[in-house]
Amino acid sequence: MKLFQEFKSKFSGLDKALSEMNSFRKFRELKVDLGDGANLVSVTLDKEKAEVGKYQLEIGQLAGKTSLISNGFEDPNEATFGPGYIRLETEGGETTQVSINDKESSLRGIASALNRDLNAPLRASVIKDSSQPEAPWKLVLSAKKEGSGNQIQTPDFNLEGGTEISIEDQHDAQNATVSLDGFPIETESNDITEFLQGVNLHLKQASPDHPFVMSITEDYQKVSGKVKNIVDQLNQVLQFIVKQNSVDEKSDTTTTFAGDTSLQSMEYQLRNAIQEGFLGGEPGQANVPIIHLTDLGVEFEKTGLLTFKEDKFNKILEKSFDAIAMGISGPNGFAFRLRSILDGYTRLGNGMLSIKEQGIRERIKQIDNQIEDKTRLVEQKKQQIVDQFSKLESSLGNLQRQQQQLSASLGGGGGSVSQLLGG
Fold first, then answer.
1. CA of 323: how far to CAs of 58, 221, 280, 308, 414, in Å?
2. Which residues make beta-bridge pairs with 122?
3. Where are the domains of the chain?
4. What residues are paired with 213 via a beta bridge?
5. Segment 350-398, tens digit of pLDDT
6. pTM (predicted TM-score)
């Protein structure tokens, strides 16, 4: 059972490797080359949606958010503004009113009250501006969202204290501008989801009049890494089978699966799958190539294991990526064929591994029952011997008592009687 569980565990790695190549887009890997634009923008791809291509980009300006700074005050902790409220309004007409109590009527208290209100469209902080030493403490307000549609109007401070707070300077919100192949596009955020299908942009720096090329291509190294992983996982299964069948006159076949027909059948099916030909396109199309893994660098060694020539695979992959990808991960490809074979092994209930494990467990149960039966017989035999010993002890005790009685009746002359009784 321990040996079987070791063998069964090898299929989990193979199953996971297959899940990464069970369709063309899962098998495919993409990479982005930004050239001179690497410092201006970062890109993330959804490989199942994105398409290969080249695009010219130009970052005209970044999206900005509303920011405001107040006049200065001598002490940020002095509650001199008094109770009241602050009214905030966005460009779209949404209004938020934040109440200020008497204890919060300091510069830091106002900032805390604004930050505590989850509906407020901005964040507040208190900074020290040493260029104005007599009143260095100022309130800075920054909008939570970028883009001109999220512009915040000048706040209305309705506070009852004698000290007035006002906005000293303000920066307005703005949209980002990006040129795609010469077409200007505006966006409210510097994080642009689905800028192109499956392509997300994060704008880092504006650089007008400095276009750059974004190139999306197949990542051959990652693709070949997936094939190598499949080969490695298959080798673990094949190595186990080869080891079980490597026996000689000194081998203890009672502790192996030597000669097991199910393992031999498995090895036969796996080897055939490696050497089969698979369609490198849709069925019915003209001139569809037949893809053989043995032509791509996946070959059998004399040991019975597989070897993968990655350089050979990459060179062929660059020349005809689509055909090879379809031959490996298409609906009639190698991955589909290997999956159907594995399902026959790993399927719950009636899969070969399940049946094999059930048979082993039944054999263990039979052995356990035999052990119980033998143990019960031993206990019975033991009890019989104990009972016989008890009877013998009782008989000896009776003989000893009779000896004593005879000795007493003969006036101590029981030496001859003792000798007769073995005393």
1. 35, 17, 4, 19, 113
2. 143
3. 2-25+220-346, 30-58+179-216, 67-171, 354-417
4. 56
5. 777 777 778 888 888 899 999 999 999 999 999 999 989 999 988 888 8
6. 0.72
Residue 328 · residue 320 · CB < 8 Å: no
The string of pLDDT tens digits covering residues 23-73 is 888 999 999 999 999 999 999 999 999 999 999 999 999 999 999 999 999
CA–CA gap between residue 70 and residue 137 (Å, rounded): 9
Separation in Å, CA 94 to CA 120, 152, 301: 10, 10, 72
Identify the residue whose tokens are 């501006």.
129
CA atoms of 217 and 292, how far apart (whole Å) = 24
| H or E segment and range at residue 170 | strand 167-171
Q: Is pLDDT of 345 > 80?
A: no
Contact 110, 81 (CB under 8 A): yes
Token duo for residue 121: 């469209």
CA 327 to CA 329: how far, in whole Å? Answer: 6
List the beta bridge partners of residue 33: 215
User: Which CB contacts under 8 angstroms, 24+ apart, belong to 305-314?
Assistant: 305/235, 305/238, 305/239, 305/242, 306/231, 306/234, 306/235, 306/238, 306/274, 307/231, 308/227, 308/228, 308/231, 310/224, 310/228, 313/224, 313/227, 314/220, 314/221, 314/224
**CB neighbour class for 87 (10 Å; exposed up to 12, middle 13-18, buried from 19):** middle
Average pLDDT over residues 224-243: 89
For residue 255, the model assigns a pLDDT of: 61
**Burial group, residue 163, by CB count within 10 angstroms (0-12, 13-18, 19+):** middle
Any idea of the CA torsion for 334, 340, 346, 349, to the nearest 10 degrees? Answer: 180
Q: Percent of the chain having pLDDT more than 70?
A: 93
Q: Residue 13 carries which side chain, given as an amino acid letter?
A: G
Between CA 166 and CA 86 the distance in angstroms is: 12
Per-residue b or e along 186-199, where b marks 16 or more CB atoms closer than 10 Å to that residue's CB: ebbbbebeebbebb
In whole angstroms, give the CA distance from residue 204 to residue 372.
75
Which CA distances in Å does 177 have to 53, 150, 262, 271?
A: 22, 16, 65, 57
Cβ atoms of residues 231 and 19 within 8 Å: no
